[in-house]
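lol forgot to send this yesterday, sorry. struct tokens for the thing we talked abt
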């Protein structure tokens, strides 16, 4: 008698109930560990992306001041993307957006000032606040130094988790900027960065 080359060794194939329960249990454990970490990763990424956008705006303003040898200001704005943008005033809240423009003062006037850029703000759930020195506006002189008689400017970006997960951008009177995270150093003061 000849043995066929492709013989089926078992007449049943598939998973047993125990194997299926084991896979489902392991999947549940991995999800329970991974989902909270993924949520924190997304929140941290959102704060850092907004901090990068604001830090980039500050660097743009300083480089434009140096390039043009003229005073370039940044101000907070609630209508930065409109056809007729304006500065808010002395508000320390920069969450809704900002303007970058050439100006002899800290207010934007479309008739006399050149608008160089706009920022859309941080989106929902994030706050951007400046210290009292900056208030609603600050500027760089044509030599790249900060035009602030009151001293250094600080900006804090935070979400609902508070200063431990926030990012702070510090501008020295010489115009240089540094940033640090509350998770790698002291907690960021989200209301009045110091």
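and heres what i got for the seq, position by position
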């Amino acid at each position: 008698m000849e043995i066929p080359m492709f013989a089926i060794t078992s007449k049943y194939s598939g998973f047993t109930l125990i194997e299926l329960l084991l896979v489902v249990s392991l999947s549940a454990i991995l999800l329970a560990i991974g989902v909270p970490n993924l949520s924190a990763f997304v929140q941290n990424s959102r704060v850092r992306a907004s901090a990068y956008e604001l830090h980039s705006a500050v660097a743009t303003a300083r480089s434009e001041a140096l390039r043009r040898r003229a005073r370039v200001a940044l101000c907070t704005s609630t209508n930065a993307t409109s056809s007729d943008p304006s500065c808010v005033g002395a508000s320390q809240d920069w969450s809704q957006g900002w303007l970058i423009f050439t100006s002899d003062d800290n207010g934007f006037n479309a008739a006399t000032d050149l608008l160089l850029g706009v920022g859309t703000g941080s989106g929902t759930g994030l706050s951007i606040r400046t210290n009292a020195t900056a208030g609603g506006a600050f500027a760089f002189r044509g030599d790249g130094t900060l035009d602030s008689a009151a001293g250094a400017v600080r900006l804090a970006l935070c979400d609902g988790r508070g200063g431990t997960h926030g990012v702070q951008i510090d501008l020295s009177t010489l115009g240089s900027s540094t940033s640090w995270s509350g998770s790698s150093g002291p907690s960021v003061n989200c209301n009045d960065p110091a």
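Residues 121 and 193 are 18 Å apart (CA to CA). anyway ping me if u want another try
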